[in-house]
Design a protein that fits this description.
There is one protein chain. The chain is about 50% helix and about 15% strand. By secondary structure, it is α/β, with parallel strands linked by helices. It has 2 domains: about 5-200, Alpha-Beta Complex (2-enoyl-CoA Hydratase, Chain A, domain 1); about 205-250. The strands form 2 sheets. It has a 6-stranded mixed beta sheet, with helices on both faces. Strands 5-7-8 form a 3-stranded mixed beta sheet. Helix 1 (about 30-40) links the parallel strand 2 and strand 3 (about 50-55). Helix 9 packs antiparallel against helix 10. The two termini are about 25 Å apart. The relative contact order is 0.12.
Length: about 260
């Protein structure tokens, strides 16, 4: 995997976008390597949380310029296949059965901002900047708009995408895109602290919760309640639930199953 670095340090894995010479720009090869890393993580029972960050001074500057140039010449079906590749990655990250934390170490622009937006938690360096800048080049942040509306509401999402402006980590925190802002030198240590904290919880519970929240938004009241009811009932049949209750009653730390049920 030339385009990313994968570090497995149970219970945490770190995926580092590794194209610093082009500010970790996104390409088809990078997406393929990212998917391969997720495959390894999902098949490793010792990994219970994931950190995504960028090598060098940027998180990701979006789609590779050479890829953008090629897009202007390719037929519609190839464009659709490119979009499908990104859609699959976004969906997989959003519903991935481990917690995913973006550690935004620098500019997260266009597709790079989209990638950060999909993650469960976003920890940003104080000097990080964000922007959904696609309209500036005649493109549309179509796929990420599905998630951005969920994150910060339709009016704010429209403003960010229609203006294409860049904004600070402090503003990203204010609108709910970022969960925490820290000094740059503390970024990875704080991300690891959060990842390890989540990893102490029930792995099956984490997977179930991500599935529930991921599918609930946009459902009507009765549909959402029915979905929640099914998850509520199903979790009670898992080994993690039985172990968690037993450990609580016995006043000891739980001994979770390593590989989550999902």
């Amino acid at each position: 995997m030339q385009n990313i670095k994968l570090s497995l340090d149970p219970p945490v894995a770190t995926i580092t976008l590794n194209r610093p010479q082009v500010r970790n720009a996104i390409s088809a090869d990078l997406i393929a390597d990212f998917e391969s890393a997720l495959d390894q993580i999902e098949n490793d029972p010792g990994i219970l949380a994931v950190i995504v960050t960028g090598e060098g001074s940027a998180f990701s500057a979006g789609v590779d310029l050479s890829v953008l140039k090629e897009m202007t010449r390719q037929p519609a079906e190839l464009s659709r296949q490119d979009s499908l590749r990104v859609m699959r990655l976004y969906r997989r990250l959003y519903l991935f059965p481990r917690a995913v934390i973006a550690a935004v170490n620098g500019p997260a622009i266009a597709g790079g901002c989209g990638l950060a937006s999909i993650c469960d938690l976003v920890i940003a360096a104080e000097d990080a900047i964000f922007g959904y800048t696609e309209l500036k080049i005649g493109f549309v942040p179509a796929l990420v708009s599905v998630f951005l509306v969920r994150i910060c509401g339709e009016k704010r999402a429209r403003e960010l995408m229609l203006t294409g402006r860049t904004f600070s980590a402090a503003e990203a925190l204010q609108i709910g895109l970022v969960t925490e802002v820290v000094p740059r030198e503390q970024l990875l240590s704080r991300a690891h602290e959060l990842a390890e904290s989540i990893a102490r919880n029930s792995p099956t519970g984490v997977a179930f919760l991500k599935g529930l929240v991921g599918h609930m938004r946009g459902a009507g009241l009765d549909e959402a309640l029915t979905l929640a009811l099914e998850f509520n009932a199903l979790i009670r049949s898992t080994e993690d639930f039985k172990e968690g209750v037993t450990a609580f009653l016995e006043k000891r730390p739980p001994r979770w199953k390593i590989k989550p049920d999902h």
